[in-house]
Amino acid sequence: MRTRTVDLESPRQGDLLIRMAAAGSCHSGDHIATGDLPARCDVP
Predict the structure, then answer these.
(1) What CA–CA distance (Å, rounded) separates 25 from 3?
(2) Contact 13, 4 (CB under 8 A)
(3) DSSP 35
(4) Are 32 and 26 in contact (CB under 8 A)?
C-alpha cells in the first residue's frame, strides 16, 4: 500500500469533489488483493 499525490481535472458542472482525510484497510482486503482469498461480489 502506498500514498501518492495525483493531479485532478477541475470538477465539472454537477460533479462533486471529496477530499479524503483518512482511509482504512482490513487484513482480509490484503489477502484478496494478493490472491490468497477469492473476491466475492454476490450483492443482490
Answers:
(1) 13
(2) no
(3) T
(4) no
1-43, pLDDT tens digit by residue?
A: 677 888 989 999 999 988 888 888 788 888 888 888 887 766 6
Q: What is the per-residue pLDDT for 33?
A: 81
From residue 33, alpha-carbon distances to 6, 20, 40 in Å are 22, 21, 12
Distance (Å, whole) CA 24 – CA 26: 7
pLDDT at 16: 93
Q: In angstroms, rounded to a whole number, what is the distance separating the alpha carbons of residues 25 and 1?
A: 9
| The pLDDT of residue 14 | 94
Nearest to 9 by CA among 1, 17, 26: 17
